[in-house]
Specification:
alpha+beta; seven-stranded mixed sheet; five-stranded mixed sheet; 39 strands
């Protein structure tokens, strides 16, 4: 109570008992209530309402400032504004949609009696009042709102006010645009009851949005005035601008207008109205928009979308369904996006909505609901689990409570098992926030009995009550009621805890009611008559079947005498409740029940009465691995795009006839995948081709059957399913510039289901016959040869293609375009737009050579695999470099199209060669022989990466890819030395969801996979390896495999000596994470080497298992025996052995292990050996030590220093040998390590680093210079680019002078490989103006981006920032411009940060999105190296915390990272800095 100067709080609000009432929720409540009552000192005490009829002037403001003050003081830790939306705004919207709704302001004359005054102290004054004030604040802007409130408080200090006084002050600061009648606006939401919903429709051309409004009511016949209209602020964003945080209204929907129209220059995909639910209304989207929003929310892009926006849509949908405006099935289908949702707020809204629905489900239907719930919660529950973590945020804690309470309540096996194991394995109490939920979940398990032990030992009365209430969640209801409820629980609590039993176990309502019915005498005697009536009154609200209605009627008839004179009235009241609920369920939940019972996007019954066809959606639905009882053998697939060439299609029609085979009789169910497809027809035929109808289950013996489905789908804009791409044709003398469209597919991993219903898993291989309908003006290609084209009339054609080999659905592909072919499309060709035809000769020739090389390499040639056609198709702006569709490989356009002088440098050509070889390798590894499940994706990706290197090196040895391979290996070493490491092979059960699939597409499957296969190849010898692979490819042609199948073939050809347990060896590097390091010590006599092993980790305290050991192939060479080409292991370091000892007849000077870095481990040499290696490498010819081993030693040393095992001084001393190093690969390893160190050096330390750099690079730079030479090898070109980029960056005088002279003297463009490096260096000297001129006149988009990056290397950062960066219309240019300035001039980062901090809000406005600013600042913080920079950054965060809102957490985390980096540099680099100063 807000008494002025003496505020009275409940005891539990101010007193927090450690371990009992000091949880996060307790603390949040205390913070909010203190803020609430303090707010009253101004709103209520100083400025006081003139009468209770406008009580919201007190309570609305107190609630508003309670929320926003808490967020401000506690740096958004509690996300109070987000919680406000779901806990207050959405709840008051429910109360405000019924006849009992009240206005905020009532006429004074209507509020006179005590009862009338009492009605004002309600939710409306608090929650609606705060919601309306929040709306005004967001519309007028924080600054304007604060000015208005400040002047209001000043003027009416110690006075009384009414709403008009407040409105007068708001008007003074309200923005003049967009125009609005403020008196009407204020009145609509304070003097009228209720609120509107805005109905959103989109026109067919997707260029106009039409809005209507209507008062929202749950029941339009409840006597409410449904004609009320409102002045509605319209805020929105679309896919075109994605300005999710812009709360300034675009316009106001005048209450006297029928519609509002919003037009767009370009078609939009989606629109979101009422951003962050900042305004007081609901939004009803038509189905096309809602479908697009769901798709948006299901992608990684949804990270930027405010949680409140997501929660708003969920809450609105549930309420529209409750009002009968939409079907609950549509709501539950939409909620499938939650598989990708990890934020508490949308989940809060979802569970609140589901609560109303699930209470109406029968006990028989609840298991299907649990299955649905398990599917959509898999991602979030895997993330949170049932176990609390020290790293939990507040929202994590709240989210875990929410999910465990629901999942365990509805018998999710994973939830129950986790809870039981945690409870039995941990004697500590859960946190106060989680305790009740956790103990309740425990009570449902076999650990129930131990809760009584806790109860008996507990001394705190509140916790004893909490445990008692938790025990009532028990599923052993009979034992609980008979032995515990009636004998151990206090009499006064028995009715409450009896209700808890069926409320927490709704599937047990029938047996619990039967028990009560059979023992009513006992229950009445124990509880009392009135208490029993109270229980029955609650219980009937959980009855969901007509059988329960009948049982209850009979029960009341038998026992009516027990309940006194009012018994008949009670009976009718109870039955009325039951019948109303049942009628509501039958009317509203019919389709939703079918939906949930099928656990899928649609439950569709075939014409047969006995077989159910389930069409399930995304593989995020765990448990929906398809059954092996039925398999497809053949798909007859037809896809038709209807629109003409000038009006490209946005939808398609399709039909697929799937020939099915089963080894099981009495088959009752067929399950397929489909996503975002409408099924318009479904037929099932038997093996004789007859339509099956009304066959009894016992009569069906299905061996071969055909299922035909007709579909309608949408052409996507993302790289997903069937999608379209725009291609700009610049035109020529005969044609004008114009847009061209192409339509193509991307089905990997599991997106064929977006185009046709199918068995969308790799193990379900089949043949495909394909026909493709298209308008004239296009041509079509698919996986196989075109057989014929038929003219269907009306400028429409159908292309018929040959049957494919047996393959997985993810390899099906087609392309509709106006492309031109180089080569023969019935054999081999490269397809590109006609304007690029002359630029595809290089890729065409490479393709021919690569195919020939693979044909020689493998026993089955490409055509013998089963497909005569091989087409390479270029795709503009392709998100994926290449996709190995069998016979129709898609490549990004820049890979196949070599633009002379732009994309025809060595780097581009190398990449083209490698990627062509990579995708070609997939014809054998992935297409012909296919993994059985994605959990061993490396069987595809690892082999493709290795053969990409081997074949390209064979054909183009000038790229030295055998040496460059160690660059790939060293990169994956970094990732594999952290807690986030992954094994190559995972259990199938652990790879089920979309997010788990995505992890497999990272570096591990490709780089580690290739590195491990390369290790096996080296250890067993190339000939033995080739024999194994050839037999493997032969045996599993057109089949599926797992790693054990490969291992069996490797074993057949593995050398008998040296001995090794191959199963262990294979397992160590595929099923275990990480890798070892071998520690090498030499004895004093220099005649014995002792090896030890240890898992290598950068941080041994990061939770990784440091005890892992490995079977390690040991290869070595010494100064005595130069055996670098002998890659056969000397021995294997058995994982069970402590050491390996190697003896020599005569003393050695040095030894090198892991020859050519062919095996997957690091090597740590002791100091004597390392000193000798430095001497050996310093000699001419480097003592014949190969390039790969030189790079290996350098990379290992930097990694050991990063892990704190050696000092960086030792690394830099060793690197002094580089004075005699001229090869690219060792320099690449060195520069990678040096850049990592330099990023932690302060601007004052960098000159010493530069001096050191000058010293070790003098020889190689003198040889290469900055000027390209006609005699340059490919490696010279790469090396020059490396040297110039680093030396000029760190202000090497000779480098800068040479660049300046060459740039001024030579007007020719440098080669594409070198151009950006050279121009970047020139921009730091005198070349800025000329590069700016080149930028302004350049027409090639990619070249223009390159020139912008080069320009941004300038050291005149302020001029570039003010004149160019701010004026750029491209957001990416702005962020890239700033990033380049400090990354390429690290000594200038402090003044650049100061410049940005001068007005970060202005910068964000230029970007159009505060999130882009956050991302840029977060990245920039990684380069901070001084306390001064940290303080500047902290000041920037503090000054702009309100501007960034809840996202400020990103910057706060970045600041903590900066502090850790500073401490790391202090501990790890002090000796190095002293060393560099002395040099």
């Amino acid at each position: 109570m807000e008494n002025w100067g003496l505020i009275i709080f409940s005891e539990e609000m101010l007193i927090h008992r450690p371990g009992y009432t000091d949880g996060l929720k307790n603390k949040e409540c205390t913070i909010r209530m203190i803020a609430h009552e303090i707010a009253h000192m101004w709103f209520g005490n100083s400025v006081t309402l003139s009468w209770w009829s406008h009580f919201w002037l007190n309570e609305g403001f107190a609630r508003f400032y309670e929320i926003f003050t808490t967020d401000q003081i506690y740096h958004y830790k509690y996300h109070m504004e987000e919680q406000f939306v779901v806990d207050y705004l959405q709840r008051i919207l429910e109360k405000d949609a019924v006849a009992a709704s009240l206005p905020l302001t009532s006429p004074e004359i209507t509020i006179q009696s005590f009862d009338e005054i009492d009605t004002q102290a309600n939710f409306f004054a608090y929650e609606k009042g705060a919601s309306i004030i929040r709306m005004w604040r967001n519309l007028m802007g924080s600054d304007n709102f604060n000015k208005s409130i400040n002047s209001y408080l000043k003027q009416y200090h110690l006075k009384n006010t009414n709403p008009r006084d407040l409105f007068a002050h708001l008007k003074q600061n309200w923005p003049s645009q967009p125009e609005v009648d403020l008196d009407t606006f204020f009145s609509d939401f304070t003097e009228q009851v209720g609120y509107p919903m805005v109905i959103v429709n989109i026109t067919q051309d997707n260029q106009k949005i039409i809005l209507h409004q209507k008062r929202f009511l749950y029941d339009y016949e409840d006597g409410s005035d449904a004609t009320l209209r409102y002045t509605i602020p319209i805020t929105f964003t679309t896919n075109l601008d994605q300005s999710y945080y812009n709360l300034t209204p675009y316009t106001y929907f005048n209450k006297n207008d029928t519609t509002v129209e919003i037009s767009f220059e370009n078609p939009i995909e989606w629109i979101i109205i009422n951003q962050k639910q900042s305004n007081y209304y609901r939004v009803f989207y038509d189905q096309p928009i809602l479908t697009q929003i769901k798709q948006l929310f299901s992608t990684s892009r949804s990270r930027r979308i405010p949680a409140t926006t997501k929660a708003q849509i969920i809450d609105d949908l549930f309420n529209f369904a409750y009002a009968g405006m939409i079907d609950y099935a549509d709501v539950f289908e939409y909620l499938e996006y939650l598989r990708y949702e990890f934020n508490y707020v949308p989940w809060n809204a979802a569970y609140h909505g589901m609560e109303r629905v699930v209470q109406r489900l029968t006990p028989q239907q609840l298991p299907y609901f649990e299955k649905y719930l398990s599917n959509i919660t898999t991602g979030i529950f895997n993330e949170l689990s049932a176990k609390s973590s020290s790293s939990d945020s507040v929202m994590d804690v709240y989210n875990r409570v929410l999910h465990v309470s629901w999942l365990c309540k509805y018998q999710n096996t994973n939830c129950n098992k986790q809870v039981e194991l945690l409870f039995l394995g941990n004697l500590e109490k859960p946190s106060p926030d989680y305790r009740k939920t956790f103990y309740c979940a425990v009570s449902r398990t076999d650990a129930h009995a131990r809760l009584w032990e806790l109860y008996n030992n507990e001394i705190d009365s509140d916790d004893k009550n909490l445990i008692l209430r938790s025990i009532s969640c028990s599923r052993d209801y009979r034992t609980y009621i008979k032995l515990e409820l009636f004998h151990l629980i206090p009499y006064s609590k028995q009715p409450k805890y009896l209700k808890e039993v069926y409320q927490q176990n709704p599937d047990l309502i029938d047996p619990i009611f039967s028990m009560i019915s059979e023992n009513i005498d006992v229950f009445v005697a124990r509880l009392g008559k009135y208490e029993m009536i109270e229980v029955l009154s609650d219980m009937v609200d959980y009855f969901t079947t007509r059988e329960q209605e009948e049982q209850f009627t009979n029960f009341m008839d038998r026992n009516i005498y027990r309940f006194g004179e009012s018994a008949q009235t009670l009976k009718e009241t109870f039955l009325t409740t039951i019948r109303k609920n049942l009628e509501w369920t039958e009317q509203r939940l019919g389709n939703e029940l079918a939906f949930i019972m099928k656990g899928s996007i649609v439950g569709l019954w075939l014409l047969t009465a006995v077989i159910t066809l389930n069409l399930i959606a995304n593989s995020e639905i765990v448990g929906y691995r398809l059954s092996s009882y039925i398999r497809p053998s053949f798909y007859n697939l037809s896809i038709n795009i209807q629109d003409d060439a000038s009006n490209p299609g946005t939808t398609f029609n399709g039909e697929v006839a799937i020939t099915l085979q089963s080894n099981q009789s009495n088959l009752l169910e067929i399950t397929l995948h489909k996503e975002l497809l409408n099924i318009t027809r479904c037929l099932l035929y038997n093996k004789d081709g007859r339509l099956q109808q009304d066959i009894a289950a016992g009569q069906l013996r299905m061996q071969t059957t055909r299922c035909t489905l007709s579909t309608q789908g949408k052409v996507q804009s993302d790289t997903l399913g069937l999608f379209s791409k725009e291609n700009w044709n610049a035109g020529n003398s005969s044609t004008r510039a114009h847009k061209e469209f192409l339509f193509l597919t991307q089905f990997e991993l599991n997106d064929a289901r977006f185009v046709f219903p199918c068995f969308d898993e790799p193990a379900f291989k089949a043949s495909f016959s394909f026909t493709l309908g298209r308008p004239s003006g296009y041509n079509a290609v698919s996986n196989t040869r075109l057989m014929e084209t038929t003219n269907e009339g009306k400028n429409y054609f159908v292309d018929h293609f040959e049957v494919t080999p047996i393959m997985s659905t993810y390899l099906v592909a087609f392309l509709i375009s106006n492309y031109q072919a180089r080569g023969n499309i019935s054999d081999f060709a490269v397809l590109s737009s006609p304007e690029h035809y002359n630029k595809t000769e290089f890729s065409y020739n490479v393709g021919k050579r690569v195919v020939a090389a693979f044909n020689e390499l493998f026993p089955i040639s490409y055509k013998q695999l089963g497909n005569d056609v091989l087409l390479f198709a270029s795709v503009p702006s392709f998100d994926i470099v290449g996709m190995e569709n069998w016979g129709l490989i898609f490549y990004s356009e820049e890979l196949l199209v070599q633009k002379p002088g732009y994309t025809d440098g060595f780097v581009h050509k190398e990449f083209t060669c490698r990627m062509i070889a990579h995708e070609m390798a997939h014809m054998w590894f992935g297409n012909s022989v296919t993994l059985s499940w994605w959990s061993h994706f490396w069987l595809n990706a690892g082999f493709a990466r290795l053969y990409e290197i081997l074949v390209t090196h064979q054909l183009y040895p000038e790229y030295h890819l055998d040496q460059q391979f160690v660059i790939h290996l060293q990169t994956i070493f970094d990732e594999d030395a952290m807690n986030s490491s992954q094994p190559l092979s995972s259990s199938e059960s652990s790879i089920q969801t979309e997010s788990e699939f995505e992890e497999l597409f990272g570096s591990f499957s490709y780089e580690k996979g290739a590195s491990i296969i390369r290790m096996w190849r080296s250890a067993m010898g190339a000939v033995n390896f080739d024999n194994s692979i050839n037999s493997y490819l032969k045996q599993y042609h057109l089949k599926n495999t797992n790693p054990s199948d490969l291992f069996a073939h490797l074993k057949l050809n593995w050398p008998a000596q040296p001995e090794v347990v191959l199963d262990t060896f294979f397992s160590d590097f595929t099923e275990q994470v990480g890798y070892p390091m071998v520690i090498v010590n030499i004895t004093q006599d220099n005649q014995k080497i002792i090896l030890r092993q240890k898992r290598f980790l950068y941080n041994y305290d990061d939770g990784s298992d440091a005890t892992l050991r490995y079977t390690i192939p040991i290869t070595f060479a010494t100064n005595v025996k130069n055996t670098f080409d002998n890659l056969t292991p000397y021995t294997y370091f058995d994982k069970n052995n402590t050491t390996v000892e190697i003896f020599f007849k005569e003393p050695i000077e040095w030894i090198i292990l892991n020859l050519k870095q062919t095996s997957y481990y690091r090597v740590l040499y002791d100091k004597p050996i390392l000193a000798q290696l430095k001497l050996a490498l310093s000699k001419n010819g480097h003592s014949s030590i190969p390039v790969e081993n030189r790079a290996q030693i350098i990379d290992d040393l930097f990694s050991f220093a990063l892990a704190g095992m050696i000092d960086y001084v030792d690394v830099f001393k060793f690197l002094e040998y580089l004075k005699n190093e001229f090869d690219y690969v060792p320099w690449y390893a060195a520069y990678r390590g040096l850049l990592g160190v330099s990023q932690r050096l302060t601007p004052h330390q960098l000159p010493y680093f530069a001096k050191y750099l000058n010293n070790i690079t003098s020889a190689v730079f003198a040889k290469l210079t900055v000027k390209s030479n006609s005699d340059d090898t490919v490696m010279d070109v790469y090396n020059r680019q490396l040297q110039v980029s680093l030396l000029c960056k760190y202000q090497n005088t000779e480098c800068n002078n040479q660049v300046k002279l060459n740039f001024e003297a030579d007007l020719e463009k440098p080669s594409p490989d070198y151009r950006e490096t050279f121009y970047c260096a020139a921009a730091r000297t005198t070349g800025y103006a000329r590069i700016l001129d080149l930028y302004s006149n350049e027409s090639d988009l990619e070249e223009k981006h390159m020139l912008w990056r080069a320009l941004s290397c300038t050291r005149d950062y302020r001029a570039h920032y003010n004149n160019m960066v701010f004026n750029s219309k491209i957001v990416e240019n702005k962020t890239v411009g700033v990033t380049q300035m400090y990354e390429e001039n690290p000594d200038l980062i402090t003044p650049i940060l100061s410049m940005l901090a001068e007005n970060i809000t202005k910068w964000s406005n230029f970007l159009g999105d505060s999130w882009e600013t956050l991302v840029m600042l977060n990245k920039m913080s990684e380069s901070f190296t001084t306390v001064e920079q940290a303080n500047l950054f902290a000041e920037l965060i503090d000054k702009n915390s309100e501007f960034f809102g809840t996202d400020v957490e990103v910057l706060e985390s970045a600041l903590e990272r900066v502090k850790k980096n500073l401490e790391w540099a202090k501990q790890r680099l002090s000796n190095l800095n002293n060393y560099l100063r002395r040099k």
